[in-house]
Inverse folding.
């Protein structure tokens, strides 16, 4: 089945190139090409798509403003002629960032990245370890290795080159990155909900709008993670 | 149209054009044609904003037109446009871009006949 794509760019040449590339790829179906964010947003509210090619600087509604208003998060590939937006792109959890004009080989790289992540996602339920808490890790803190049962950990916060583990009784700071922690805990009840936080899903007390609460601490949820959080908790 | 490897004029960024179009001359013709039809109006609007002292409009239009030069192998013109955009962003003063803007217009006027000639060659 082909992946449904839309293109949002106020520059006609950019739209034309992306449409041709999608056609050349063979696995993508362009269901719309829009020159402004308002029309695109209207379409996105009525139709679900897989991939969104999105320009950043457009009149009336910018690419980021459009993302802010989406009720679901397709795979997003930002297309811009200005690299200054790379940090924002990272903040919004976009899949790739293409600098215009885009060559076909670079386009293909971005699509491969997406198809691989979609395949991974489809395999996830099979690979996922049942949500039981028999696992533990050792962390290096205060000059020693300390055993932490996953059940003890409330959430983990990134502090740049360090991460901080929060438990009911004590907090531990250790030299590591959130990415490394995420890899170690990927098959558990832990989930990254924001660029700075991994949380224990079993410890969430409340979820409201784009934040959740664990033991009184309000933790932001990035838009790009919101739908996954909702799919991993039991909502009645 | 039959696909073939087209050797672009070396005054254009031939390496980039090759990577962009590969053997898709039909697309190259379309892009060159589109560019040559559109850029005069776009430049006119940029010039109007410059004269009116509308830095926001000027910067926005330069930003929009910037990548289109690269589609026809004018990557150096795109770079000049990027520099103008950057000065607008950082200095907020149109007087600071005056010389670079003039240089941008001169370089473009000088190279446009090459783009026109390449379009004619591709069509034949």
């Amino acid at each position: 089945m082909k992946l449904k794509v839309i293109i949002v760019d106020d520059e006609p040449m950019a739209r034309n190139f992306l449409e041709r590339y999608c056609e050349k790829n063979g696995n993508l179906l362009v269901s719309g090409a829009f020159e402004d964010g308002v029309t695109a947003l209207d379409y996105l509210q009525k139709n679900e798509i897989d991939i969104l090619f999105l320009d950043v600087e457009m009149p009336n509604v910018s690419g980021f403003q459009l993302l802010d208003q989406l009720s679901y998060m397709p795979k997003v590939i930002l297309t811009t002629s200005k690299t200054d937006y790379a940090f924002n792109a990272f903040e919004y959890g976009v899949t790739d960032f293409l600098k215009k004009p885009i060559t076909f080989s670079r386009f293909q790289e971005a699509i491969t990245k997406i198809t691989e992540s979609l395949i991974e996602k489809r395999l996830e339920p099979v690979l996922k370890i049942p949500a039981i808490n028999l696992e533990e890790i050792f962390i290096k803190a205060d000059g020693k290795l300390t055993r932490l049962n996953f059940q003890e950990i409330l959430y983990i916060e990134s502090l740049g080159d360090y991460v901080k583990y929060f438990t009911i009784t004590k907090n531990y700071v250790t030299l590591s990155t959130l990415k490394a922690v995420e890899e170690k805990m990927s098959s558990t009840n832990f989930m990254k909900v924001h660029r700075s936080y991994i949380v224990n899903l079993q410890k969430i007390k409340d979820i409201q709008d784009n934040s959740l609460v664990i033991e009184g601490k309000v933790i932001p949820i990035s838009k790009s993670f919101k739908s996954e959080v909702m799919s991993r908790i039991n909502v009645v | 149209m039959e696909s073939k490897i087209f050797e672009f004029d070396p005054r254009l960024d031939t390496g980039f054009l090759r990577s962009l179009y590969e053997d898709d001359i039909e697309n190259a013709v379309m892009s060159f044609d589109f560019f040559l039809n559109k850029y005069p109006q776009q430049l006119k609007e940029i010039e109007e904003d410059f004269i009116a002292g509308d830095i926001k409009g000027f910067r926005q239009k330069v930003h929009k037109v910037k990548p289109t030069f690269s589609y026809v192998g004018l990557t150096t013109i795109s770079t000049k446009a990027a520099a103008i955009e950057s000065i607008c962003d950082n200095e907020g003063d149109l007087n600071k871009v005056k010389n670079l803007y003039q240089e941008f217009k001169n370089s473009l006027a000088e190279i446009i006949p090459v783009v026109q000639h390449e379009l004619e060659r591709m069509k034949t």
